[in-house]
Every structure is written in structure tokens, then in C-alpha cells.
User: Fold these one by one.
Assistant:
Number 1:
Amino acid sequence: MMNTQRKGGKNMGVLILAAGQGTRMESALPKVLHPMGGKPMIFYTLRLANALKPAAIGVVVGHEAEKVKAAVSALAKETGITRPIQFIVQKAMLGSGNAVLESVPFLKKFKTAVVLCGDTPLLTYESIYGLALSHEEQKGQATLLTAKLANPKGYGRIVRSPMGEVLRIVEESVGSPKELALNEVNSGAYCFEVEPLLLGLKDISPKGPKKEQFLTDIMELVRSKGGKINAYLSPNPEEILGVNSRVQLAASERVINRRMLERFMLSGVTVCDPGSTHIDADVEIGQDTVIQPFTVMRGKTKIGRQCRVGPFCYLEDAQVGNECEVRSSQLVSCRVLEKCAIGPFANIRPDSVLGPRAKVGNFSEVKNSRVGFGSKVPHLSYIGDTEIIEDVNVGAGTITCNYDGKTKHKTTIGAKAFIGSNVNLVAPVKVGRGAKIGAGSTITEDVPDGNLAIARARQVNKA
């Protein structure tokens, strides 16, 4: 039986190949920086590399090298990547073998190297850990992560000996009918002993019209020098799917999203329709919360316990406390405290704080404002740059007129005030504690505590 503990990583480095342009993406953005689950694609490979606890991580960059370097450095800082990162520049885009050849000064520091591709974001820690562990146990010179696909079209096929040893990798363009009938394919993830890898790199011949050097050719070169090539078969074939086009990007995004939703469901969150629910990698959701269909959560959104969110909600960098209900609404860069009710069709804009026990109802918009404990903005209102203290009722159609054409001004509404329907509060203005504003009024001056303010023309009826 194979040991389940891998030896320490102090003699192991991880190399991530991230130099390609990705021409089939039809984009000015480097392929590995395309977003997936709210993160650049390379984040998932970088996180995986860090989890292996290597001595260092090497990242090969080429196309738009400075952009990729900056993004990787920012990701490392934001997400707690603890392993040191070294960048290697591939001067010319001459294939994966050339990328590894450019990395020799990095690789020669280690006894063992794991090589991963920055455009295979679905690889799992279990499989890559298993790959490294199998490499140690089998004591070969190279170990490949492979998978068996029902439709292997587009992938290099694994040719084995009758004893199961890997003989070579055959690219689809040059495979014989017998070889192309094989369904075990190469994932592009490898574990190498560094010494035979470096020896083999010197002998890789350029191929094709672009004179590229392919890392897959290293296998036959290692075997020709007496080395042994092993394969570790992934139990999860979908993880080897790479991203070379927008179609494949969407397919991989669906897998990433499904995995995250499954993680939430296993931790006590109800997701009514995973197929219509999209959640980014940094989102947090508390136990016993229910997510209704057609809900999107982006950025660092955090939802508390026992909430109901959806249907048809969009939340981005929103913080929602326990026992809240959000229906058919948009919340961006705001805080919602416990036991609030929002929607339907409310728009809570940045720098707003609601609650506890506040209500913002249908077709109401709140921007850069605080709606205090138990206060209500039930319908058809705009609340901008406003401080609403506790237990205030804001009537339908109320507008805080916060902008004079040059500057934004503040409105303050005291505790237990009552704002009638169709009121305009022309800022800067203060409505005192317990004050009442008559329906249809346009208020331009402060209203003292407990007063009734009426600011409208007297009704005149004419026959």
C-alpha cells in the first residue's frame, strides 16, 4: 500500500508555465489573467502550488510579462501565498520545452520539480498531491498526471508498455489510428527529478513551422537514457480541462462555480438552483441561509446565518448580517446589519449602512447613507448622503435633494420622525426628533424636534 504522507518540500520547487498569449482567446488580456470565479485564472494554479508547500514557486512569463508579474504579486499578497515566488522571462514564445529550458537557473536548486500550466485552473490538490506522492513511491525520473476521457480529441495520448510503463506521449496531429483510439490523455502536469530533466532539455529538437520545443518530447529522451516514466491517473477527468478559448473558459467557470456551491451546500447552505446561481471565490455564506435562483454574488460578499437571498439578486462586496431577507435587489459595497428586509427592486449603493431591523422596499435607492435601527424606506424613494436615525418612517416618493449642481450636501432625519409621501428634502437640512413632514412638502429649512412642517401651496378649487 502506498504511503499517504509525502516527504517535506524543501527539496522541491513548483514551476508554473504562464507565458503564452492565448491567441484563440481573441483578447488583449493575457490568457492566464482572464477572470474565473472572480479571480484571474492563474490564481487557482498558484493556490495549488502554494498548498504543496514547496521551497519556492517559479512563474514563467512572456506575453505581457509585466502585467502577469503584477497580477501574480497582487494575488500572492491578497490571498496569503506564503511560498517565495520567482519570475522567469521566456524571451521568445518557442513552446513549453523552451519555457522550462529558460527556467534551468530556478530548477537546478531542487531535487524534484512539479510543472503545472497556468491555464489548467481545474486541477485539484488531491490529484497533484497524489502525483507527487506517486512520484516518490515509484522512484522514477518523471511522473505524468493523466486522465481517461470519453472524447480524447485534442489531447496527447499516453502510450504504455504491456507492463503499464509509459513509453511516450503522442500528439494528436501525428498519431496513428491505433494510437488515436487510446483514451488516456496527458494533462500537462508533471513531476520530474530535476537532474534527468535538465539533461533531457538540452536534447529537445525544435518542431513545426514555429520551431517550437515541446516538453512532452522529454519523456522519450529520459527513457532513452535509462530513465523510468510513470503515470498517475486522475480519478476526476474534468480537472485536466485546459482553457484555450472563451468557450472553454465558460465551461471551466461552470465547474469552478459548481465546486464552490457544493462546498457551501455541504456546510449547511441551501442553494435552490445551482445552475442559475453564481458565486465568486471570496464569497462567504453562513449556515442555514437559503439562496434562491438567479442570484449572483461577486467580490468579497459576506452573507450571515439564516438569511434568504433572491431570487434575482446581485451582490458585490456586500456585507449582510444574520437573519436578513434580500429579494430581487442590487447591493454593492454596502453593509446590511441583522434582521433587515430589502426589496424587491431596491438598489443599495456604495458606502451605505442599513439597520439593524431596517427596511428598504420596492423601487427605493440608498446611496452613501445610513438607515438606522428599525427605520423604513418602504417604496419609491431616493435616499442620498443621508443620516436616518432610529424608528423613522419615510413615505412613498420621498427624495433627498442632495446635489446642487456642484456639491453633495447632507440630510439628517432624527429618531421617530415621520416623513409624509412625495416629500422633497433639499439638503443641507435637518429634520428633528419626532418631527412630522406633511405629504407633498418641499423642505428647505431645518425642522425642530417635535414640529409639524408643511411646505406646499394652499389648494384652490375653481369651478
Number 2:
Amino acid sequence: MLNKKVDFRIILTFIVTILAFLLLIARLYPKSNHIQINNLEMHSGPSIDYPVSTKLKSNSKFKIITKKNNWSKINSNGKTGWVPTWLLNKKLDNYSKLSEATIVLDPGHGGTDAGALSIKGKYEKAYTMQLVNQVYKELKNSGANVILTRNNDQYVSLNERPQLAEKNHADLFLSFHFDSSDLNNSATGFTTYYYHNESSLALANTINQSLSNLPLTNRGVEFGDYLVIRDTTVPSVLLESGYINNSKDFKYIRNPNYQKQIAKDIKAGLNNYFNKK
């Protein structure tokens, strides 16, 4: 009986040793994966701002070496470089520069911060969320890594919003609002605001130009001293997409088709922005 117990312990120890050895091998020689996107760009560093070193063909094998800031350093066919982690093992027919971007979308207001009151007695916070949901869908379909500062009717402090972009090493921060005038029906149109001239003015101009086909007056690009676009190093703009206390503007603001048009225009503008970079 004693010998049987000893034999069992020896066998158990042997099995544990083999499993530990196999685990070590798996870590040292990770499983090969395959690139699903044709001509996926490999960068020299962990950001869209680094130069492209080569392009990978679909079905190329790769192994991850390390990860940093949502990017992975990989080896593929003897070539080493960085690609967005979220694009690995992902199929995407419409791959572009935009697909490589991390973008933070900020639906203005939320929770106890209701925002401006519309001409029909409803608050801004609901419509910023509706609009951002449409923009989110468009950008996600493009393959981008999209992060929301809020995804429901919750309060998020002004400081937390740009900090989220910094924390996630975002390439862009877009904040969505609707304007309001002192008197109902006294102002109309949409405006694109920026704060940092060097990092954000080009982004503001490109997005504003892409929105020129909207049915409301384009009030252009303006400097705006708003905390959410001021207290960040990330290229940032704040969009006021119509006056919520103007009857004409509000008909569009609450219309899903208007929201979808803005989303499509923003995607087009961001594609232009990244292609120019």
C-alpha cells in the first residue's frame, strides 16, 4: 500500500513538471497567428505618427514580441515593427489610416449636468449621446479603436474627459455639443472649436470642411477656451452642431438622418486628416 502511494506521488510530480515545461515553451515560443488585413502597415514605433517600415500581406504569420500603448511589436517573416493591437487577427475590408487611430468621443454633459434646454423643453445631454452613438458606429466600421467618455446618462467631470484621452494615448479627442443663444431663435448654425493652434487647428479645419454639406449654416472654425480641449496634449476639437433653442436647428438636431450625416462627414474628414499626415 505504501509503494502505491509513493508511485502516485511520483507520477503526479512528473505530470506537474511536464505541464510546467509545456507552459514555459508556450511563453517562449508563442503561437503563430495570421494577419487578416492585406497591406497592413507596420510602423517603426508604437503610434500612427511613426514612419511606415513595411506592409504585411494578408495571411502573413506573426508573433507578438511586446505591447505598448494599444500597439504590438511583432515579427512577421523576419521583419519587426509595430501595428495596432486591435487590428491583429481582425478582418477588415476598408482598411485605412483611420483604422490605426485611437479616438476618444465625448458626448457633452450627462447625468446631473443636463446641458442646454431645447426649444421643446428637452435637454442637450440626450442629443449629444445620440449623435456620438452614430459617430461611434461609423468609426468602428472603419476599424478605429473608439473610446467613449460616457456611454449612458451618467455624470463625468470635465477634467476626466481629456484625461481619458491622455490615459489611452489617443490620437484624437472629439467633444460633441449643441449651442444655445440667450434668446430663442436668435442664432443658427454649427461651429468647430479648437484651442491649441499647433496640434488642433489643422484637425478643426479639416473636420469643418467635411461638414460643409450640412443643411445648417457653417459658422466656421473658431478659437474656444473650453477645458476639455484645452487641458490635453491630444489633437482636440469641440463641435457645436446646431442651436438647440432654434426651431429650425432643433428639427435637424433630433433627426437621426442629420446625426448620421454628421457621422459620415466626420469619418470622411478624419480620413482626409490622417491621409494628409
Number 3:
Amino acid sequence: MRITAGRVVMALGLAAAVAGVAWFLMPRPVPVETAAVARGRFVATVDEDGKTRIRERYVVAAPLAGRLTRVGLKAGDPVASDEVIATIMPPAAPLLDLRSRREAEERLGTAEAALERSKAAVERAQAQADQAKTDLDRARTLAAQGASTVQALERAELVQRVADRDLRAAEFQDHAAAHEVYQAKALLARYQDGADAPIERWNITAPVSGVVLRVAQESETVVQSGAPLLEIGDPRDLEIVTDVLSVDAVEIRPGAEVAIEHWGGPGVLSGRVRRIEPAAFTKISTLGVEEQRVNVLIDVLSPQELWKGLGDGYQLDTRITVFTRDDIEIIPAGALFRRGDNWSVYVVDDGRAQLRTIDLERRSGRFAAVKKELTPGERVIVYPSDQISSGVRVSLK
């Protein structure tokens, strides 16, 4: 049987059609994004934003009530220890109406008369005391000569003691009368001295050397005792306050290394955790969720010349180291997914995705550390979709 050229062509066309249909029906490789498994040092950190704070700040308050003169200092002005930074004058005495003033003048006259009467009483008591002393001396002389009895001597001694007590009482009364005169004069001093009377002032000095951080009251006004006037601190003595979740604070230890980023200057500053405050507080997150957070205090270790532009209350980012491990496999955290109770990844092997269960050591941020189930250089699928399963052909994007 002879095969014609037409049949050959027809057979080839049919084979090509079958091959085209087979290729069309064959599953196409799923495009995926992969990352290589690396081996090196893994560092787990707690990343939170924080702010700077002057370690020691002093709030200068009014020591007494009165009228505060205008404060000439501004925020940022340097001050020295014991330098006068504010002045307070005592409040002016209240005005008296005509009737009250007349009563005060009459009260002054009464006090002056009482003072004269007390002075006369003192002179009378002094004379009686002198006479009693003279009688006592005479009685002692007569008793020594035997010309007087012992009873007469005792009576003379008693009279002398009573006279001395009366003299002291008169002197006390005279002292009290003098104070009453001073009190009455003080009430009228506002009208008697006039505008030439000296104004008493109380100077407030800086407790330490530093810089004025804030002026609470700048204009002249009446202040009460204890009212805050201004704040003073040393901007070179900065610390960083970072509030972290309480579950993360459990892992942080004093002395932990801190990387300080996005602080406004070039490079990354180094720091160290000094203290983790023992009490947490409730804070509402940006999503409206209540969170228990803890303040972590951080010291800046980098030279002050590198961050001299930082001030009080500046914002920055902190990365607090809580775990380190050397010579371990590292993969992107996006490659991990749960399968049952285990962590798994998809590894690209000869163009196909292969499921592999791993033993996760630790994850932090964008990376995770894996124990020995992966080989450096292997490629894992990052963020695998539901189209990926074991044995599926894949292609790299």
C-alpha cells in the first residue's frame, strides 16, 4: 500500500493538533516570589517608637503667695545655679474705707495709752522691788546682830520675791502693749508712708545650672504658694522612654543593646536599656484596642557630638535586642505558614514546590530562624497562595 504525500501531511497536522491540545490542557507553572535561605547571625528585636526625655528636670514653684513680676527668661535661655530667675512681691494690703480707717486710728490711740499705762506700772513695780530689796538687806543685818527674829527675815524675803514677780509681770504687760501699738501702726502704714514706702521683694533663684525648658507664667500676675513658674534641666542629660507591650517587656533585660533609628540625623545611634518600669499602664492603640504597655528607659551610648541636635520630647524609633543566635538558617517570615500544629514552608525543587515541615527557632519582624531543616542557598516561596501545593510547577517572577 502506497502512502501518499497528502496522508503524511494530514497525519502530521493531526499530531500537531493533539500536541497543541495537550499543551493547552497541561497545568501552567504558577508564578511565585522566592527568597534564598541564608546562614548567619539572627537577632530578634522589639521595635517600638520612643521619645527623648531630660533625665533630671526641676520645676521651680512660687515659695509664697504674692505678685510675680514679669519673667524675663525664655525657653532655651541658659541659667546658672543660684541665679535670680524671678521675683515675688507680697500682696498689697486691702484698702480701708473711712469708717474702718477712723476705727484703726482710734485703736492706735488706745494702744498707745495702754503702752503708757504699762510703762507706769513697770516703774511702780520697779520701785516696790527696790524697796523690798532694801527691807530684806535691813532684816538680814538685824537678824545677824540678834535684834530681829527669824520670822521677820522670812517675811522680808517673801516680800522681795513677790516684788520681783510683780516687776516681771509688769514688764511682760509693757512688752505686749508695745506690740499692740506696732500692730495698729502696721494697719495704718499704707496711708502714713504713701508711695515712698520701700517695697519688699522675694528673689527666686535657680536650683541648678541648666537651660530653661518651659516658662509656665511669663506675665506679671498674682500667684499662690506652690504655683509652677518655670522648668529647668540639662539638655545634654537625655534618656529615651519607649513604651512596649507587656508581653514583650517580659523578655527585655537591663543592659540589652538598643539601635536608635530615624532620630533625625545620619546613621544609627547605639543605646542600652537601663530600667524596665515595674508597673504597666493602659493605652488605646490607633485601632482603638486597649493595650497594657510598659515604659523602658534607655541610655544613649553614642558620643554626644553625634546627637547634639536632639532635645526634650523628640520622637525616634528603637530596636531593643531580646534574642541572638549565631550560625543559623534565616528565611523571610512571609514564607512561614501553619499546617496543623507545625510550621511549614514551600521549597522550590527542580521547578516544583515541595512542602517541608520545619522546626522554628524564633521569628522577629520580617525574618525567622529555622533549625537545620533547610540548606543555605535553597529557595523558599514567600507568601504562597492557595494555588500552591506540593508538586505544583512554579516559575519565578
